[in-house]
């Protein structure tokens, strides 16, 4: 059975979407949390644009950054522990 260039092209088109995930670098795209932060800060009965509101949003951002840093550090520690202490059957 002879495969022509059209079949190779179709195979490439089918495989390309599966390989695009390999090209992603850096941080994955995160969900937009601004609405959640806005609702949380407004629940404290502060006016949008006031100092308390700005501080609330800033604190939420810092907390999210700290949580991401903890998750990254935990993942790195786990990977390091698995590399340094391999389980050999």
> Can you tell me the overall shape?
flat
Number of strands: 0
Q: Unreliable runs, pLDDT <50, ≥5 residues?
A: none
Radius of gyration: 24 Å
Listing every helix as H and every strand as E from the N terminus to the C terminus, the arrangement reads HHH
> How many helical elements?
3
Strands, helices and their partners?
Elements: H1 5-19, H2 34-42, H3 51-84
Helix pairs in contact: 2-3
Structural account:
The protein is mostly helical and 89 residues long. It has a domain at 34-89. The protein is built from three helices and no strands.
Concise account of the structure shown:
The protein has helices at 5-19, 34-42, 51-84. By secondary structure, the protein is mainly α.
Key descriptive features of the protein:
89 residues; mainly alpha; 3 helices; 65% helix; 0% strand; flat
């Amino acid at each position: 059975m002879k495969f022509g260039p059209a079949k190779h092209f179709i195979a490439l088109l089918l495989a390309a979407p599966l390989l695009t995930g390999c090209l992603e670098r850096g941080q994955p795209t995160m969900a937009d949390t601004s609405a959640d932060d806005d609702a949380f800060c407004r629940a404290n009965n502060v006016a949008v644009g006031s100092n308390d509101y700005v501080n609330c949003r800033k604190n939420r951002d810092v907390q999210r950054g700290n949580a991401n840093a903890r998750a990254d550090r935990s993942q790195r520690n786990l990977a390091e522990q698995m590399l340094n202490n391999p389980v050999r059957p």
